[in-house]
Description:
By secondary structure, the chain is of the alpha+beta class. Helices cover about 15% and strands about 20% of the residues.
Amino acid sequence: MGGQPAFVFAGLMSRHKSKGDSEETILTAAIVTKAAEDTAVEVHDRIPVILPKVMESAWLDREQQDEKVALEMAQSVAVKDVDFYAVSSRVNSSKSVGAELIEPYANPA
Length: 109
């Protein structure tokens, strides 16, 4: 994929039982966001928290039980230096597949 290194978003997951007769286990997930900074504000007022490689293990540490400490830690070291560019609106469909989806789009609306 273009030779770019992979990156990790800070995310949260929860597991709980549904209310009702089935007692089905429900999994939920969310990506942690923060206020956009620098050139990212041109795109949106919020951005995902991108963790630097050195932070990944600390974020996944099951012993870390203080959510405020974890969030402050992740937000304080979040990667800020990212490149962005327009891509095809095809990325908005889960049916779209292919490496061309991440290629710069020459005719942004």
